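Re: your question about Activating signal cointegrator 1 complex subunit 1

S., sorry for the slow reply, the queue was backed up all week. Below is exactly what I fed in.
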Amino acid sequence: MSREVLAPPLQRMGNNRCYRVNIIHEDFGNQQAVMQRKQTHPGEQKSANAYVEQDLYDEDDDDEQEEGGNFSIEELPNGYYKLTMHVAQSFYGGLIGFKGSTKRRIESETLTDIYVPRSREGGQKQAEDVSVKGKSRSNVMAARRKINLLLLSLRKRMRPTHFTCVPLHEGEIKEKFINFKKDVLALNLPGIDENIFQTEDCIHLTLTTCVLLDAAERAKAVEILQSCRTFLDGLKTPFQIEIRGLEIMNDDPSAVRVLYACVVAPELQKFADMAMQPFLRSGLGFDDHERGAVKLHMTVMNNRYRKQLDAKSAPTFDAREILKRFGDYNFGKVECNELHLCVMHHASGDEHGTFYKITGSLKF
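Result:
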């Protein structure tokens, strides 16, 4: 074995980055690399000895078929490649980094040049696109992937702005919810007041949450919601939903933040689990608890509603008596034949008597 393994050549990538170039040897068992080296012309033998990593971004890459493929690549007259992709202005600062450090790092690692428009140019359609230039398609695709990973990380740190849901603010469910609310308030339990309840005009089942920061992202989310129609094949619609029983989001019933009603809807559960995936792949939506399945529930009481009105109020409430008296409460049944993509407000709606603002719908 060559002693070069102990002292391999070095490759400097700029910005104080220096990488070791591993040497391939026949006794390492990399038969594919060995065959490639043996087929190399004598004059090229020296360069063939260097380790060549498999190109994960080659021409066979199917990135352009990915969910949320909001980009295009063109070959410039000078032989370079240019990729343009939509990035919401809210991410410009994170993409550039402190004094441009993040942008320079991605450029150095992928051998590309990245252009991020100034925020004040956002009113111009052309200026909304981030562009990447490089000597090869694989370079610009590598940069795109790094940018997408960065955007996904930044998006997960933000509060959801939208959610997909099944509306329940009409019919039997609403009537029984109102009765439940009256019965609980009539008990005059310590720490329980009307502000802690969900508004009857806004009760719903949440399927997915999203962070949508501009018109382009909202339009993409509506498009994804519409594409979920294909998941209805083989399912019995309209979905039959039964809501019965109460549960809490934590383990201590004496210190509860969220009290919710349980949902029985096997067909809706199948659809929700499938519909969640395209939102996750797009990078616009995410599953907070990484369950791999949607937790169907109807929020009944949430301490956050009260905290928004009074920041000094208690962080939790005691739900023991409520669970004891109403643990098996029957909220009724309903048929579901539509889903909505809605704006997530800090309060329980814009005004009393109104549902959340609807951005898009899927009716079936």
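The chain has ten helices and 15 strands. The radius of gyration is 27 Å.

Happy to talk it through on Thursday.
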